[in-house]
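your task:
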Amino acid sequence: MDRLPVILASSSQRRIDILSSLGWKYECISPDIDETPWEGEIADQLVVRLSIGKAQVVADSNPGCIIIAADSVVEVDGRVYGKPNSPSEAEAMLKEIRGTDHRIHSGITVINSATGNIRSHCVTTKVHARNYTDVEIRQSINRGTPFDKAGGYAIQDSCLNPVKILEGCYSGSLGLPVCKLIEIMVDMRQDIQHTNFVQDSECKPLCVYERGNQ
């Protein structure tokens, strides 16, 4: 087993929190790439391509490291939602998403820049959004919550409480699918024996989440 330095190719606080919770030592480098979708590109392909792009930019200037990158979007009936760029866009986005059954796609890429080995995957989480009110939307925007989040909302937002039912990977819905990350690291023969996470006992109970009737 190897133990190469780990770099998280992200400035996302949620991804930082998730990776920190594993007890790993790592540094953060935020890559700058064009995240514009290609014409006809579907959501799961988009997030994988962008996660590869982010990881590759960092890997190119950091030899001998493990680079972890991710990207997420919300998809409603084939329409892809990234991060809103303005209050009006956030309001429109949240109105279109509320009460819907939709999907959060999170692409993850890990590159061993010492060997060039690369692994990528898309994890999809099914979500049924709560029918939150216009007032709640405006309050969320006033707090500045939507602007760094795909779809303009966060699963864990205790003020908006946007999600009624979630099926799939909870950490994936937050932007970094932990089970898949650990699977890839093991496949790459990286030493993660001190990880503060046990898949069977900690991950599976989180994979079905229901807020209840609200």
